[in-house]
Fold these 2 entries.
Entry 1:
Amino acid sequence: MKTEGGSDAAKRRAGERAAEAVEDGDVVGLGTGSTTAYAIDAIGRAVADGLAVRGIPTSFQSRRLALEVGIPLTTLDAVEAVDLAIDGADQVVDAPDARTDGALIKGGGAAHAREKIVDATADRFVVVADPSKLTDRLERPIPLEVLPDAHTVVADRVREFGGDPTLRDASHKDGPIVTDNGNLVLDCAFGSIEDPGELATRLSSVPGVVEHGLFVGMADTTYVGTDDGVEIREY
Ligand SMILES: O=C[C@H](O)[C@H](O)[C@H](O)COP(=O)(O)O
């Protein structure tokens, strides 16, 4: 399940603007998805021009892209710190007066478990988005990466919480998608979410949930690519 909408030009502007924040010597978390791919491309061009960085990919796909564009790679256990993480989102709360401002739903590409580890570790977490991702309240289904043996019991718990879980199917394989970590994904509709932090805590408490796609209080900045520029949100 991927987010519909959002022009490629807007995604490109957001991704390229975020890549400009990368400094010589940085360790950079490389998120997953079509918007972050523009940032990875731009970092690759900067590396070709002499920028010294090391990237930590958050998925098979971002690793593959980073290798293609020539970004030297490392791992979390080989570095002392991650300076910056650049990552996309499926929804971003854009409500400056609300305490939920900057809360995210991620995992449309089923990469949110590794993404959350890297994004949470980074000194600075920059989100790249186009205007189609902005919302007053989070309302898309929340992806839950679950251990395969636990998918029915986790689904039962999600229903107890008022959610409607759907096992995510693969598009070019019979049966469910399998994550980079060998797990399954339940997309859990909760309607319009009033308190993402409270729901995040509940979902994290369910045995069998490896990680959920609510990223609350994590983002430092969002670059929103538009048709003619980039808007910046700081949190
Ligand atoms: O699992 C995937 C990630 O969370 C992506 O960052 C998210 O789905 C946004 O991807 P895109 O930039 O392609 O809309």
Note: The chain has two domains: 8-136+216-234, 142-212.
Entry 2:
Amino acid sequence: MELKKVWAMYFSPTGGTEKAVTTTAKAVAEQLGLPYEVYDFTLPQVREKEKAFAQTDLVFLGTPVIAGRVPNVLLPYLKTIVGGGAYGVPVVSFGNRNFDDALIELRNIMEEDGFRTMAGGAFVSEHSFSRKLSAGRPDAADYEKMHAFADAIVKKIQSGWEYTAPAYVKGEDPIRPYFTPRDRYGNPIDIRKVKPKTSDACCGCGLCAQVCPMGSIDPTDFECKRICIKCCACIKKCPTGAKYFDDPGYIYHKEELEEMYEGRSEPEFFV
Ligand SMILES: Cc1cc2nc3c(=O)[nH]c(=O)nc-3n(C[C@H](O)[C@H](O)[C@H](O)COP(=O)(O)O)c2cc1C
């Protein structure tokens, strides 16, 4: 395989996916002595542009895990990426619960786009909903794992490997339904319509509107006027802590996750 460039391409509202994708892609580029370029499609205006790759590209493509899957709001965009025979590495970041079928779903999307997938990885980051759940992740052990992933990919490339079939990654295909949070009686909790609120602590800086990956926050009154994917970019990036959710179902689910997934989950990769 002939490679000329390594790409780190990602959607990362709170920065966890960005860390996993850039760390691994950059390490591979450095070891192979190839140029490295970042393509961040977190903001909606970037997703309006077309993106196409060539056979000599190696593309690390990353998204967070949402309800055990690739974020469904991204599917239309992801399907427009032109793989062009480039080599592909799907990467997902998850908040310590599970990545379920997100990695295999992203692999399938990449294959349909025309990438030749050669590996895949799932890495742990702080959970979007929480400051407690997987706090401080990725940590030193996670970064070591990202470097081990990069090393294994370099070894595979240098061994003369040639593409014959989609990369093996963990997950079920057909892809299972989205993970549904449930209350203590087993009833599903539907947080799809829940939106963040703004407290009096708001200083009017407008950062929330700038960082919302859905472009849903009105820059004049800072209220969320359109779809909210609960990515928590506005909450975690607000300099005065003015953004919050008060929906009881959302709070119940967040606290339950913090309790049930207190133990450490490990990243996994497949090369
Ligand atoms: C709506 C929503 C659903 C999520 N579902 C899962 C999940 O099923 N499993 C999991 O481990 N983490 C889940 N997470 C956590 C994110 O996958 C995790 O925090 C990820 O690292 C965020 O990526 P980012 O920092 O690039 O935004 C979810 C986050 C959100 C916003």
Note: The pocket of flavin mononucleotide is lined by residues 12-18, 64-68, 93-98, 125, 127-128, 179, 230-231 (CB under 6 Å).
